[in-house]
Amino acid sequence: MATARKDSPGTPVPSGPPDLRVAPDAVADGRPAELGPEALRALAHPLRIRILDLLPSHGPLTASRLGEILGESSGSTSYHLRQLAKHGLVREVEGKGTARERWWERTPGGFSISSAGKDSPAGRQTAEAVNSEFLRLRHERVMAFLRATQEADEEALGTWLGATTFTTNNLWASPEQMVAVVEAWEQFAAEHLDPLRGQEGDAGTVPVEIHFDAFPTVDLHGNPL
């Protein structure tokens, strides 16, 4: 089963597939809450996932602007925003916009999705489908960046030289050792990534993604993936 972490440190789930964590900010126990069945079903729509995926990097957006980016009508994006808002996944930006032009942002606090512990095959399949779509979109952005580097000038390349990396380490480790690695990542994230939050629009900053993946390359029965 797919293992993914997005914009967040993760927590291993020894008895099942780990969860996908999306844009967690500070929450009471340090971990974003898992989506309930109704919210998960509401999210299980490619356009809604795409909307949630766009908001962090593009900043607050109106339904009209989202429609332009996604090639959809503003009526369609407005409807899906309202459905996401019903489940607390997006919210209106206070003090911005008008009655006719509402601005939306992803709700701070984040959420997690796991197929582990779901009480029905349909629930597990829905969780897997949503996780897979988030991962597909992440891969799209990685490939878009690689294509952009082919067209960038030397000055632009020099600016990001040393600030971008795609790293894979193929090792052998026990579950206990992997727990230690994930815990070390969580500490690193708290020390180095959390201070970067809330800098949207600050001079010299651009949207970035920082990934950390840690997963066995065998299935739950020990068969190679």
- CATH level-3 fold name: Arc Repressor Mutant, subunit A
Low-confidence stretches: 1-29
CATH superfamily descriptor: Winged helix-like DNA-binding domain superfamily/Winged helix DNA-binding domain
Shape: globular
Helix content: 40-55%
Give the class from helix and strand content and strand pairing. Answer: mainly alpha
The helix count comes to 7
GO molecular function: DNA binding; DNA-binding transcription factor activity
Keywords: DNA-binding, Transcription, Transcription regulation
Protein name: HTH arsR-type domain-containing protein
Domain HTH arsR-type: 28-128
Structure explained in plain terms:
With 225 residues, this protein is mainly alpha-helical. The protein has one domain (20-164, 174-196): Orthogonal Bundle (Arc Repressor Mutant, subunit A). 44% of the residues lie in helices and 9% in strands. It contains seven helices and five strands, in the order E-H-H-E-H-H-E-E-E-H-H-H. The chain has helices spanning 37-43, 46-58, 63-70, 74-86, 121-151, 154-160, 175-193, and strands at residues 20-22, 61-62, 90-97, 102-106, 111-113. The strands form two sheets. A three-stranded antiparallel β-sheet has the order 2-4-3. The chain has a two-stranded antiparallel sheet with strand order 1-5. The radius of gyration is 19 Å and the shape is globular.
